[in-house]
Amino acid sequence: MIDEVLELPDGRTVGYTDTATGGTPLLWCNGGPGSRLEGMGMAPEATDAGFRVVGVDRPGYGTSTPQPGRTIGGWVPDALAVLDHLGIDTCATVGVSTGGAYALALAAAVPDRVQGLVACCALTDMRWEEGKASMTDAGIQEMWAAPDRETALAIGRENFGDDGSKLLEIAPDVAQQLPAADIALFMDPEFLQRLVPNLGASFAQSVAGYVDDRLADGPGWGSFDVSAVLCPVGVIHGGSDTIVPVAHAHHTASIVPGAELRVFDALGHFSILGEVLEALTATLAR
Asked: Cα separations (Å) of 278 from 118, 175, 253?
């Protein structure tokens, strides 16, 4: 695995990983909190399925310079800089949870470079008020309503700790709400071993990356035009997801051109990840 930092013309850095294998390039857009290492947790299975996984830290995560005021659509040049640096002309993309919007923004901005995408357990456009109101975990509504970034950062620190350490404190309460499929996954030592590096990178620069994610998605998808997406799109979601309700998937499928929705009733926000590669293969075959 390649794990490096790319310096951009404006002086910022972007951290990225690359399995550097053969196969179809797959740009993995991580959840929030998350990092470039999230997709590496799927690397063995992805390689076997014929994919070369590339992960990119959004600003404030991992080794990417924070960028206060960033938007979803405004992230696309960072992704393209990494793809260009790696000599990747076209790719597939997966967006998980928060990352779903970023995968769609990339496909909308450069439709000739994205072969197909999967939005997995993804938040939908927060201009849909019903969907926005359904998000109630970990101070998210308070961050969206915050009058400024400093206030939002304080809310993020209160809920997660500046280094993410409070996640351990809230984990038991969160676990009580998870479906059986998610709980079983968290009992798997291999899954936890893959998860730990990603969590460490998520808060390597404090809680800022996560807070800036929330400030970017709170206003909705106005920073990109989802109707410009031309590639095949698969939308998959766990019907038992207790973190991002399945209604988000139905709404996304209704506004993304040609999107195909598949709901896995027994799966939750984490266990649905096991369906990503099969869904992506099917989407690319359309």
From this structure: 10, 27, 18
